[in-house]
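debug: dumping io for the single-chain case to check the tokenizer round-trip. Nothing else runs in this session.
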Amino acid sequence: FRKVAKQYIENDLWVIPVNISKRPALKDWTQFQTRPMNSGEIDRYFRNCHGIALLCGGPTKIELLDWDLKYDLSGDFYERVCKDIPFELKKKMFVQGTKNSGFHWIYKIPSSSAHPNQKLANRYTTPHERHKVYIEKYKDPKTRDKALKTASNDTSRVLAETRGGTSDRCKGYGLISPTEGYKVVYKPKGGIQEITIEEHDFLLSTIRGFNEVLELDDQRKGRYDDTNWDIDPFEDYNERGDALELLYECGWEEVGSFGNN
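debug: decoded output
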């Protein structure tokens, strides 16, 4: 992996090693969110790793679109979405197959389009899937007490999402070839291509059009209903409460101030 990692970085594609759980195989990878590894770091960190992950966002402008088709119950989700994406745009995608029969589309975007990871298309979890989660958690003594809550909270499955970051920092990552189970399917002429702002907006909005999970209403999100209050409780506390005095009563001490803070 060390030789391949160096080749990636020579081509301005920042990578990090991952373990068998698809997690970064180093204690702290935040330093590599703003710069690529050097040769010595590659020799050190890529020794005995399970695979390679491509960092997304930051100065590289890389975005990875993850098609997680193992959750596709229809069997043709990918084909239906692709029909609505122009051929010229699809030709710009660097495509690789994933371990679970899905795909990764890799491309570059303008810095102004940079955005952290986004879930684009989801579907509701089936009762059978929630029951399966409950059984798995219940069998493990460490998670048995939370089995029901975990299963109840499993409300949706992601079919397509992006891995990205900010304009100056890599935030997401995705496994790439030659990691076991990942292989290149299509490589555009000239390597990974940059798409326009308009193409990027069209791509993401098209996929969002296949999202089946509706946003929860405010009440279900846990937001309180203030229609029955004569005085909003938060405003009431702002007017009559004394947060500083409460901290004093709990043993805190004031060590400094700046203006009213």
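debug: round-trip ok. The longest helix spans residues 127-139.
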